[in-house]
Amino acid sequence: MSALPFDSATYALELEAKAQRLRDLLAPFDAPEPQVFDSPLKHFRLRAEFRLWREGGERHYAMFAQDDKRTPILIEDFPIASLRINQLMPQLKAAWQASSALSHKLFQVEFQTTLAGDAMVTLCYHRPLDEHWQNAAEQLAKDLDISVIGRSKGKRVVIGRDYVVEKLDIAGRTFTYQQPEGAFTQPNGTVNQKMLNWAYEALGERSDDLLELYCGNGNFTLPLATRVRNVLATEISKTSVNAALNNLSDNAVDNVKLVRLSAEELTEALNEVRPFRRLQGIDLKSYEFGSVFVDPPRAGMDPDTCELTRRFDNILYISCNPLTLAENIAQLHDTHRIERCAVFDQFPWTHHMESGVLLVRR
Question: What does the entry list under GO cellular component (predicted)?
Answer without folding.
Answer: cytosol
